[in-house]
Amino acid sequence: MRIAQLAPLAESVPPRLYGGTERVIAWLVDELVARGHDVTLFASGDSNTAGKLHAVWPRALRLGRKGVDPSAACALLIEAIAERARDFDVIHSHVDWLPLPVLSRTGVPFLTTMHGRLDLPGLSDVVARFPTAPFVSISDNQRRALPNANWLATIPHGLPRDLFRPRYEKGSYLAFLGRLTAEKGPEDAIRIARAARMPLRIAAKIPRAETTYFTKKLEPEIDGENIELVGEVDEIRKQPFLAGAAALLFPIDWPEPFGLVMIEAMACGTPVIAYRSGSVPEVVEDGVTGFIVDSEERAIAAVDEVGRLDRRGVRARFEQRFAASRMASEYERQYRELAAGA
């Protein structure tokens, strides 16, 4: 099939550092190309793909020239697919709502994977305006806020089986990987680690908008020994960071749509200790790949229990449930059904 993939422009595909959506798109495109599909990726010019790259902006917006209007870059992305829509059998958008007016008028089958939270004001109005636009959710919990959308399927993320090497020895510290915002739970992670008497290593970016939060709430707790900030990690450094941990702490306080870091940890054989929120119960199998807890106290207790989990079993469940090949197969099915319907 001839497949177009529309990627956000904030990061390259794949991203150099932080960027879950762009990373998933890269894995999906590579897997589809390996299966013989003709895939064109509409993305920033510094992207690297096994498919054909249609560069709509020179460089990822986050790492590019300061002061660039992101709306201008998005306008060029939408115009690019509008001009070339007839070149494809199906168009797969990963940029939320903006292309819907154009995609709905091209006459070419399309679908949109929603990667973010959907419980925001005004989104139900958009769904009502585009009642036939097809969507894919990345967890069942994600779609609960918009039950009237035209949901085709829930397709959980997947990553390549050989991307991370598992380590089966018991880890020596707790890991936190993600944005340093209150909803991701870094303060909880610090308290959990201190109470459990385990070192905590934090691999995370500090968003510009969260500088005050970091300075006031987190920086005073980081001593470089028991609580250590290692900064953002790329794909190479992420593997030893996660594989060397006794557990990944995921104490979120928001309706997480998926939580890619959870399956990255599982790929390394590392169990996950996560709060029961958002997609967590769909990703973590309690007592098998980690523990789902309802309080800080239970998370502290879970640290003591995590050593009894079979890290080989954690890796095996990752391979069974969250491989990129499974993700690509499920999208292939949707592409073919859409094309047949057209």
Automatic annotation (TrEMBL):
Q: What is this protein called?
A: Glycosyl transferase
Where in the numbering of this chain does the Glycosyltransferase subfamily 4-like N-terminal domain appear? 18-119
> Record keywords: Transferase included?
yes
Occurrences of domain Glycosyl transferase family (ranges): 167-305
Please give the Pfam families that the UniProt record associates with this protein.
Glyco_transf_4, Glycos_transf_1
Q: Tell me the keywords, alphabetical order.
A: Transferase
Keyword check for Secreted: no
Q: Which InterPro entries match?
A: Glyco_trans_1, Glyco_trans_4-like_N
Write out the GO MF terms.
Answer: glycosyltransferase activity
